[in-house]
Amino acid sequence: MPDWVGITAKLLDFFKLLGVSIQKSPKETTINKNRVTNIGGTVNQYFIVANGPLATKRQREQFQRMIQGKPYSIESLDLIKKKALITGTKDKTNSNLVDFIAKSLPAKDHALWEAGLLLRQHFTRGENELVAEIKQDMMSTDPIRGKNIANLCNAGYLEDEIIPMHKALTDLERSEDFIKFYEALVTQTPTSVFVGMSHNERILKEELFRKIKYATNYSAPYVKVHALGRHHVELAKEILKEVRKLDYVEDVFYADSLSHLDATIALRLKT
Amino acid sequence: MIQINFANDEHTKGFILSLFSKLIDGEGFIIERDSRKRVLSSDGDEIKIDEFGGVTNGSEIYLKNNVVSLINFYRQHSGGRA
User: Fold this and answer.
1) Measuring CA to CA, which residue among A24, A35, A46 is closest to residue B19?
2) pLDDT tens track for A3-57
3) Residue in chain B nearest A119 by alpha carbon
4) Which helix (H) or strand (E) holds B2?
5) For residue A249, which of A201, A214, A211, A216 has the smallest C-alpha distance?
6) Which has the least CB within 10 A, A13, A94, B22, B66?
């Protein structure tokens, strides 16, 4: 596998230089050739920088000759950055999780969960721009499942809930129930609230109280609340004060810092 | 392997696509110049110019500039794992 991180760094440095020259002569189509060596042999790198529509007939023919009958890969610089994210930052400690995803979860979600693991790696490193970019791609792929899988994966639900539930139900030969549990989790997150940009006090309170009521009706033992960022943490704490007063709430436990809160609302079981 | 990289602006994307006889329709989807049929991405769905990340050969596989889509592509082309 090529060293995409190294390649990207080189490409971006080089591209930056070319970018300057484009600004100086904006009416030119720029096709530059740069030999890059020591990446698994010699690779011919061609950069088509900008103003493609102004390419001359000769330049178009040159380009078409270049790729005719040869293996090629034509990629935007943004795509290269994303490839580098996938191949250059792989965390081997996730390999058991990737195996579980491949063997036990619906095929349509495999790539979403792997993207979720990638998002979590970058979140752990505090790389918030990359986290936002990956989450956006997950939501572009599937607005509901993508958003929920991003949140669930980042909050550790794969290890804490999905894998134990899968094991318990498989041991009881109730695999169909696992699929029902899983589908509800990734489409509705019925026992979890992730405080986000769409929440204000009223909306968060409505969602949380609705989920607590739903969980109580179905004898679920708890509802969890997750908040990232100072504003979201403060918002969650305010609502949790009110939650404590509800009759069917046994207790509220939470671990928090200024910018991170994970709370568990323990519910009274119906007698 | 010839590796060609291009800037992410729409004009350059359009230029690259034109070299493969592709156009953009009124809704922003990539189409075949002759048949006017919409081109499919490696995910098997229609692809818009703003999603276009590149093309790799074989059967002119059109890649989306999307992490999930790329993971899927790698899974398909490396024995099931990205």
Assistant:
1) A46
2) 544 544 444 444 443 333 333 233 444 555 444 333 333 445 555 555 556 667 7
3) B67
4) strand B2-6
5) A216
6) A13
Could you tell me which residues come within 8 angstroms of residue A155 by beta carbon, excluding any fewer than 6 positions away? A192, A194, A224, A226, A262
Q: Is B26 exposed, middle or buried (0-12, 13-18, 19+ CB in 10 A)?
A: exposed
List of chain A residues whose C-beta atoms are within 8 Å of the C-beta of residue B59: none
Using alpha carbons, select from A210, A265, A268 the residue that is nearest to residue A243.
A265
Q: What is the ipTM of this complex?
A: 0.89
Would you say domain A191-271 falls under CATH 3.30.1370?
yes
Query: Where on the phi/psi map is residue A71: left (φ > 0), alpha (ψ -120 to 50), or beta?
Result: beta
Polymer length of chain B: 82
CB contact under 8 A, B52 and A77: no
**Pairs of residues, one from chain A and one from chain B, whose beta carbons lie less than 8 Å apart:** 155
Q: Say if strands B52-56 and A222-228 run parallel, antiparallel, or are unpaired.
A: unpaired
Of A29, A48, A60, nearest to B4 by CB-CB distance is A48
Identify any residues that bridge with A192 across adjacent strands, giving them in sequence order.
Answer: A224
Residue B27, token pair as written in the block: 């809704």
Domain residue extents for chain A: 191-271
pTM to 2 decimals? 0.81
Beta bridge mates, B23? B31
- 8 A C-beta contact, residue B14 and residue A48: no
